[in-house]
Amino acid sequence: MINYKDLGLVNTRDMFAKAMKGNYAIPAFNFNNMEQLQAIIQACVETESPVILQVSKGARSYANQTLLRYLAQGAVEYAREIGGGDKVIPICLHLDHGDSFETCKSCIEFGFSSVMIDGSSKPFAENIAETKKVVDFAHQFDVTVEGELGVLAGVEDDVQAEEHTYTRPEEVQAFLAGTSVDSLAISIGTSHGAYKFKPGTNPKIRLDILAEIEQKIPGFPIVLHGSSSVPQDIVAQINSFGGKLKDAIGIGEDQLREAAKSAVCKINIDSDGRLAMTGAIRKVFAEKPAEFDPRKYLGPARDALKELYKHKCINVLGSAGHAFDK
After folding, report:
1. 182 catalytic, yes or no?
2. How many domains does the chain have?
3. What span, in angstroms and rounded, lies between the C-alpha atoms of 43 and 47?
């Protein structure tokens, strides 16, 4: 058993309390490799933003759970090193879309400070039962737990669904009472993946449902998944260098900023980062076809990702400057 505190990590409890007080959202950025992790830490140190490092089940399979644990521990020391001081930005290591009690338990034992158990596709009573089982185990070690009500459409790693099922506000109180989760992921119109909505549409998140949920559970931390905006300049860059992302659009950043001023205190962003890195790599390959040194294309990809995430922290989530809030 590895305790996350020994790795220098924090759970989400204080993060979320401060975010709700300050009307901003914590960035939850997914990573699978070293370059992504470097970009996340650089962006958040430079903007003085707290951060949640997210690992999906697919990422654990790709990168290996032991290596991920040491990467997360290294991230804390890296943040200290490039921050140039004694203070370290708050860093949480979170399991994204845990599919079972066993997966959540394994992550907790490997040093994760927060886990999500996603029982949203199951009947309401089964979702409560499985979530409660994870909470009971996690809270023994002061690990925070995120549950989910409602289903997001789209595809991301092992998570996929054809249609949205909006969160029903009338269910949230019973879910919280039955599970004792620390935060709740809801479905109000965001979507997984890069191909979220059809071109020509004007996708809107259901802020009215969010407001109704807030009334039911005032002061409780809310999470938004599938919140990439699929920047059209990056899509154009990818396509100009041989890509074929013709019908990729996402949620407007102005809507996410509005949501971040509410009880939404964690916003998940993954696809935008994948797009930024892909655009930078394609550019190198197109302009320098003889290049074969991974550092020469992964380096620019890392830099592009850092700039994107700095923008998210400053202009979308509002988390910049809040790392050391009292």
Report:
1. no
2. 1
3. 6
